[in-house]
Each structure stands twice: as C-alpha cells, then as structure tokens.
Amino acid sequence: MGQGLGRAGRQAGRRSTAVYSASGPGQVGLGTTWGRRRPGARFPDLGLLPPELGVEILSHLNATDLCLASCVWHELATAEPLWQGLCKSNWGYCTIYHRRHSVDFSYRHLYLQLDEGCLTFNADPFEGIGYLFSRGILADNAQEIGRFIFSTETLHWQSLRLFLDRRRDVLDELVKLHNFANQFLPNALRQFFQSIRAPEERGEFLEALITKFSQRFCACNLALTCKLGLSPVMTRYQDILLRCNPALNGHLTLTHEIPSMFSATH
C-alpha cells in the first residue's frame, strides 16, 4: 500500500474538497458528484443528523464518493460498517475476513489494499496475487484463491485467463464452485464462459476448459448422467465445441446440430 491509496483514493484525491464546501448553517454545497439536481440545491449537513441516519445515507455511495464525503464528514464517512459493506460487495470472499483482527484493523484500509491488489493483478496477475498474500489478505492455497476469484468481478478477464492457464490447481477449485444443477446445457456453458473467458483459438487450454466444464456439469446432474448416459453426450458436445471459433461465440450457435442432446439435458 505504500505506493498509493488505490483507485478510489487516487480518484478522490484528484478532486477538490470544494465539492462539499460549506454553503450556510446546516447546509453543504453540492458539487459534480451529487449536484446533478436543480441549480442552487443544498444538501443537509449530515453532521447535524443522528449518526445512524448519516451512516445510512452514506451507505448508498461508492468508494470514490465516500472518500470525497470524508473531506467534510470524516467521522461518518470512515465508519467501519460502510467500508466493510464496500469490501464484501466487491470482494465477497477473502481469507482475512475470517481471521482474528488486531485492534487497529480498518476495513477502509483493507478496501484500499484490495483495490490496489486487483489493479496490480490486472497489470501482472502473479505480482497482484503476491501482493494479496504479502498483506495477509489471501492465503496462499488454491482453494482460497479460487473462492476469492469466484467472488469478485474486479479482475480483468485477460489477466485472469493468463493466471488460470498457469495455475491449473486454482482453475480446478474455481470450476468446483459453479453449480449447474438442473440447468439447460447451453445456458450452463454460457454461464461458465462468462466467468472464465475462452481463448480465441483452439488449443490445450480451451480443451481443458471444455473437459472441466463437462465433468462439472455431469457431477451436478448425476440423475441425468445415470439415466441418459450423459457422459457420452457431453463428449459429443465437447467435440462440436472444439470445432468452433470461441471468438465468434460458436459454442453458442451450433444448437441446430444437436437438438436432441439439448432437449435430453433440459
């Protein structure tokens, strides 16, 4: 964290504290962030409200606006419940959530570290994941990393794909977190490739993804596997997918070739 405050802090730092400048007794001027109302509108001073109400109002802000609000209402805008909510809404799982915290632990500081770690991951996934390890935010094992990745949308798909191609143990754990029970086969595949982008060209990694998807789909639909012999069906489906160009979403456009398979696995 020594390099900076992360995306939210940097964005807030570039704006003037005059966004929330005082405008009169019990009122605060509205800047560009909250000021898209009629000209001359005034926002009530949250410091004059009961603290619980002030925190509830601020809970509707994102991290950048909350950093700005702290320029005026520092005590309210740095309240731990606000930053805890932001952490868990952006990163649903981290190892540190389940550890005993020291007396000086701060969710605001944790948010800024998580933001910095994910920005670093998007530039260099292995440096980024190392950053999270070094801060004690994430345990260095495949299951914890998989749960972290599954719980967030802050990681860029290209960096994530590069990381998973190298860390197949993490990929295995990530696939296990998907639940395809009672799903229509193409919808399950679409969901899978929304979380793990397929390579643009056919290769070993694409084949590995399709194989892992097939195995997981069968594991989530054991009744169909036993009743309909789903494994051979998935093998046939896998062959068709591997003839497609993933960059053109071909894996979603060949349903006319195997209608009976789709209806059987609905």
In total, the number of strands is 3
Q: Tell me what portion of residues adopts beta-strand conformation.
A: under 5%
Rounded average pLDDT: 79
| Element order: H for helix, E for strand | HEEEHHHHHHHHHHHHHH
Kindly name the structural category: mainly alpha
Overall 3D shape: elongated
What are the segments in which pLDDT stays under 50 over at least 5 consecutive residues? 12-35, 245-266
Fraction of helical residues: 55-70%
Total of helices: 15
Give the biggest sheet.
3 strands, antiparallel
Ends apart, CA distance between termini: 49 Å
Roughly how many Å is the radius of gyration?
A: 24 Å
Strand order of the largest sheet: 1-2-3
Question: Which helices and strands, and how do they pair?
Answer:
Layout: H1 6-14, E1 22-24, E2 27-29, E3 42-44, H2 51-58, H3 63-69, H4 74-77, H5 80-90, H6 107-123, H7 125-134, H8 142-150, H9 157-166, H10 168-176, H11 185-195, H12 204-220, H13 222-228, H14 230-241, H15 259-264
Antiparallel strand pairs: 1-2, 2-3
